[in-house]
TrEMBL record, chains A, B, C, D:
Residues 51-443 form the Amidohydrolase-related domain. PANTHER family: COLLAPSIN RESPONSE MEDIATOR PROTEIN, HYDRANTOINASE/DIHYDROPYRIMIDINASE FAMILY MEMBER. Its EC number is 3.5.2.2. InterPro entries: Amidohydro-rel, Hydantoinase/dihydroPyrase, Metal-dep_hydrolase_composite, Metal_Hydrolase, Metallo-dep_Hydrolases_sf. It comes from Azospirillum himalayense. It comes from the Bacteria. This is Dihydropyrimidinase. The gene is hydA. SUPFAM superfamilies: Composite domain of metallo-dependent hydrolases (SSF51338), Metallo-dependent hydrolases (SSF51556).
């Protein structure tokens, strides 16, 4: 009689701490045992020569998120989570975004409707607060935090999202009091507006000018300000999608003063540069995201901060807009000015392969650090640990069996998102996910998603330990 | 028939990454399985309500180390390792110290003789190079690194140990080429000498003046210089026993520039202050170590750097000299001037309890971070991972069953070292090791060491991954 | 026949560069000669044992400035300039402040009306832009700059003054293009509002809470942001009334990156501390100004930055409100909450004596640095050099004959402003102005102002050299 | 009857503070008057359209300094001071260098013998201490300081000069106690030795490898260490010949902490780069000096620090060795390895023209800052102010009448030193000294030195105010 539902045998397991050879046994969708020569499983998977990793946790992606400019998210919860799963990710945390005037609870309800019956892997929601009324601050947000939506994103830019400093402080106070992780998009809206108008007035509308409209100091300033607000409110924050040296320096400075400032970067800042915005015709539009990719020196700075300890998580910031599409990058036609091009790059499927290949294989980070950045820390950051993000007894059996040696040239046709391009077209990587399990169930096999839409479950997040203010009195 | 030699049941296991409830099974001295409801063990240990942690790895302690001033190490490998084990430590890495003129191999041979038949837990050796001849640099040291002595300490101070910058660079070149971790004692010898002579000339001989002879900038300067040498030689280094803000700032600065500079601190910098050197009569001599404990603000800076990521390991720097002893702190009689008082404090047994109580229990660090700092990272730093330092399949079953709630007031009579005092006399801590296993064998039970001297084995260290130079070209 | 209108004989002259014994001869209101044994003057002034200094230039003071809260400036141009003159200042640069909705030219006209016929010494105007319409940016401000109003102040806080970042950038662009010096009041309005509401909600209304409503980081954040805007607009700026370490660090950091960031501090940050807000009853209201005085450590940091080169000018920021007055500090009665208490301290007369006594006499700064900070640099900063601010041939004979040894205990009854208190009551200083000349005419003699109101002339300011952007291309 | 010995009429005078039109009258070799329409002079010099500046003070040059390697200083006090004078410099401060074993007084006597009867302009001596015996520290050096040798240079590198940290501290203690300015050559000798041996072992002997043997961090480390020693000894120091960013950052950091750390740079770091060491054959030898010129980015950093306030003086560090000469750069023949090539570049005559043209004319620094850096501050730094370095009444009439518009292409044939090359060959500059007066006597006229050797006088230096420790207690 099989002792386990599933046994993954002869693999090399990795956690954020350790790498070792062992079998892994699953019972009831959870990791039940790790050991040498485990008893038989109803299903046996041979992982000889493979890595057995916790499934990736993508702590920052946008799925089926309505916009106010007429553009359309190319991925819904079905295509998005399928693409994620094929890339080795077993948990995604997209956003439930409040429109101004909308109640936050209604927004959440709407997003649940969007996700229901579609997701192939588990998901939680970050909230996005765009209209922090007294009702929201005093009741709705605390109630949602209590209900398991324990993180929210604050925008310092984008006209329909941005909050002023006072509003940010009010929200950080809620984060502190009710125990939530505040994620901050740190770019100075006024700076961007001023630069954009100058560029447009000079007739500079091509995609490449997107980078000129948001130079490094736009991000540095907002990062410093965000840190100051975290200091004032005495609460940890996470700075999302950090793109280069000057922002890193602010974060590193704050960390050196003993503050709990966490930071995220994304593959686009690890392998793209502003040069990718300079392509022929509108090609650059494919790589328009905010903050924009920087130059090679900044890219090196991001790698250094990743190999060191300044960064805590690597997310995709998957924001899927089709390229040749009037609801995508060509929103205002074939010459859409850079400031009207929807922001974002797709990358939910390529996140792990790029980080593994450029990071682990090139010797910049250890395999443990890879696991930590892409799975364990995101789970911890957002209150999903120990359920998700590690190979621990009792944790959900979200597992990726990874072929560390497979050579793949990334091309969009092999990806499973609903976007008509990938910014990483032609990038050669070593290593690719082979088999993916979600709660013990094989959802990807041989590169094909075999999961039924709707099998993915909504996850209530716990209060993240990392969101606790620093203990200063003893 | 028992499936395991030993099963530790119903405990809460912790690694540097995760905390979870599970049983742990040992076969042949190694961790064979971790899981829910493991099969029976020949020996069953109930860990209900207890933490099951990897045994501590003390990466910095001095045992039976001869001196040149007539003082005598109070602990040999028997008392020292017994004390360590009783404090939850299952691996120690003391030093094999070359005397000037002595061959390094002879030094190692001598230290093996000192350890043979005495240690109750496993041990490796760091080398101390005090006389870097061409023979040593070109042959002896590389050969010893090859033989498993893959770390060595470099002193920038102490007359009989200190190397000049040229010699340090030569040694760092060996570390780079042959793959060893260089540990650096960073204090400026000339600064200390100058200050000491001024203090003595002014008649300031009491123990408290030890602190004045080695102010923070003595350490800051040497730390900056050590970092510069690491940069020049392009090799990681570890700065040992970092005591306060200015040194931390240098390390943090270097880390922010992408350098692999590791750092260690010790309990004496976490709970003692310079005020402890001000005791009645010669009492202050009990706390004389170098660098000296600093003030409260520096102590807070050390905690911040520990909770953040600037520090990588916490060691004891156990350096045992008896207080009321003409071969100890009273080396030159009842009024021994501070500069003749042997440097060092005992602490091999109290390291884990202090870090656990002041760190985990007071909410400054997580349990995972505790494990990382005290066991996993030291093992990684010195090429002992994955054999030591974690609860991983295949690892040595070096395990401490820790009572997280036991309240203990530290007093010297309860400790097992051969020193007549502890600097932590009267300190109240919460949590204490209950049962300790080394390679699956119970060595401490109910606070008593039950292991035979000599059972501890010498460990050949691997090349530490952390000692690899940063990859810069891609 | 006299060769000079006036000769000041046997004094010790000081410039920002040199100190030397000489006579000084005036012809036609200008300095005509400096030398040994000058020929006779129609008037001869013996300065034996005295310093002969350029008259102070107070680059920041508020005179007869209407408010929107019902408070009233205690000093008009007559009492204000008389007080200034008695304190050794011969040029003041108060503000012409635009109300929202008012044209900038009308504001200037109004202020000229206020000054006409009243001033006893020369004066120029900084503009305050509170409503940067397109008309103002495109026409009015450039025209006024052209007419000699070559500096303007930007507020980042105060409800009726504050500009958003976009507006600041627009104004800095004008400063760059048309050649003006932008002065920035750097405090974050939202932070202050948030803190103030929290304090008030907790019932904390006493004067001392003013300091809690504007802690150091309120100023640090705005300083960083102001620097970022200067960087973006590529133009020098001056940060006014810098109060402590964290703001200084930002400025120092920017200067170290090669930016032209100038900085001002004031006597209140050199001798007062937040403790002065803690007085009995409402006494603290006397010292309410923004930013507030900080603690002793910050005060020391201000002195260090003054003795070093981080600061460029010392101004009074004289903002005169009577204490026992329903149009002054008691605006809302005897228990006026801190946030309704008019901001500002008087100090136009005590600026030089305090800086001289605490700075030069206590050995913190040289006499040349005193002259530079209090006279020469303000004149340069605002386009009044070489007419004002130095003892140079051809310069206006604005001269103070200073008794360096006179001991004075400051008390309000000896001062000439129209305020009923001085925050420096009881402060003992060494050195006091004895005789003051404006354009060669004695305006203060024996501590008495002998000048007719209206003799002071309006000064058109030149484009300040210091406002030029850094040359980067060669 | 003439009122003045000499009147310089109709010029534009400049001090470190001011620029103004005036006449200048000289009596008895001193500046007696500055004013409009001065009375007649026995000699009248028309300076219409010209600048009238204080003669340059070259605070760092080497004249007739014996070496230990067989090389020979190309310039003695006659050719050296003549070249200086022709370049607008009226005071030089070369070194009196102690050989190990020699008494410092004997060294001084020897140098006086070398200077006697030769100098055409005034001179003082810095001491160089290479052998700080107790006799020297306790008696000889204090006595010489008392006699007017109030500055000394400390070498942290060069085998025959370098002192260890202890010796440096002893010397800084003397500087503090007896009131002298300590100048520090900050390069780490051990680092250089290690790098040099590696380069030579690899066969890299060409001049260009000089730069590789002394990279930026060699200087950065020593700068940090020097600052630490100044902090420990609590005394100001001057870091000489600072070459680039990393050293500047250390200095700027120290200044930001309130320390009195002064800094000097030289024209070679303002216009040369390491590329100039890459010339054909041995051409690079012409530009070998220590520290070596850096890259363009470092050059820009030096300019920024010059335009800001980090640097205090610009000196020539004139160290004259002939190029095609077996006692010069070709010391060991036509392929002299870089480490045997005498260090130093000539530049005593080109210092002011390069700084004026590249600095003032290109808009990087003001004319006042030029005067401050090249004349006033060096005089203040070394106790020669107010006698030298400014246009002040009573000061020595050391004056240069400077044609600000003359265009000159620098070529060695036009220079007056005894070196067979200039590193600035072909450099086009605008502005050149026309007439130079020393103590009222014309010493250069129309580009020709008309002074008799021996007319230059030895200057006893006062205790420099700038060498006083910071006042901290009040
Ligand atoms: Zn975002
Ligand atoms: Zn996003
Ligand atoms: Zn040590
Ligand atoms: Zn030690
Ligand atoms: Zn203000
Ligand atoms: Zn003001
Ligand atoms: Zn030198
Ligand atoms: Zn030199």
């Amino acid at each position: 009689m099989p002792q386990f539902d599933t046994v993954i045998r002869h693999g090399t397991l990795a956690t954020a701490s350790d790498v070792f050879a062992a079998d892994l046994g699953v019972i009831g969708g959870r990791i039940a045992a790790i050991g040498i020569g485990l008893g038989p499983g109803a299903r046996e998977i041979d992982a000889t020569g493979k890595l057995v990793l916790p499934g990736g946790v993508d702590g920052h992606c946008h799925l089926d998120q309505p916009t106010s400019d007429g553009s359309q998210s190319a991925d819904d919860f079905e295509t998005g989570t399928r693409s994620a799963a094929c890339g080795g990710t077993t948990t995604v945390i997209p956003f439930a975004c409040q429109f101004k005037g909308q109640s936050l609870r209604d927004a959440v309800t709407d997003y649940h409707r969007r996700a229901d019956g579609k997701a192939v892997i588990d998901y939680a929601f970050h909230l996005i607060v765009s209209d922090p009324t007294d009702q929201l601050l005093g009741h709705d947000l605390p109630a949602l935090i209590h209900d398991g939506y324990t993180s929210f994103k604050i925008y310092m830019t984008y006209d329909d999202m941005k909050l002023n400093d006072r509003q940010v402080l009010e929200l950080l106070s809620v984060a502190r009091r009710d125990g939530a992780m505040a994620m901050i998009h740190a770019e100075n809206a006024d700076f961007i507006g001023w630069l954009t108008d100058k560029l447009l007035a000079a007739g500079h509308t091509a995609p490449r000018y997107h980078a000129d409209s948001r130079p490094m100091l736009v991000e540095r300033e907002a990062t410093h300000r965000a840190i100051a607000m975290a200091e004032l409110a005495d609460v940890p924050i996470l700075i999302v999608h950090v793109s280069g040296r000057e922002a890193i320096e602010q974060i590193h400075w704050a960390q050196g003063r003993g503050m709990r400032i966490y930071a995220e970067t994304c593959p686009q800042y690890l392998v793209l540069t502003e040069h990718d915005l300079h392509g022929h015709g509108m090609e650059g539009a494919k790589c328009i995201c905010s903050p924009p990719p920087r130059d090679k020196a900044n890219q090196a700075a991001v790698w250094d901060a990743l190999a060191g300890g300044t960064f805590h998580i690597v997310s995709s910031d998957h924001a899927p807009f089709r390229y040749q599409d009037p609801k995508g990058k060509m929103l205002h036609g074939a010459n859409t000015p850079f400031n009207w091009i929807p922001n974002g790059v797709p990358g939910i499927e390529t996140r792990l392969p790029i980080l593994f290949s450029e990071g682990v294989k090139k010797g910049r980070i250890s395999l443990q650090r890879f696991v930590e950045l892409s799975a364990t820390n995101p789970a911890k950051m957002y209150g999903l640990h120990p359920r998700k993000g590690s190979l621990a007894i009792g944790a959900d059996a979200d597992i990726v069996i990874y072929d560390p040696d497979r050579k793949v040239t990334i091309t969009n046709s092999m990806l499973h998102h609903n976007v008509d391009y990938t910014p990483y077209e032609g990038l050669e990587v070593t290593g690719w996910p082979e088999t993916v399990l979600s709660r013990g169930e094989v959802v990807v096999e041989g590169g094909t998603c075999v999961a039924q839409p709707g099998r993915g479950a909504f996850l209530r997040c716990d209060t993240p330990d990392l969101a606790r203010p620093k203990v200063t009195a003893v």
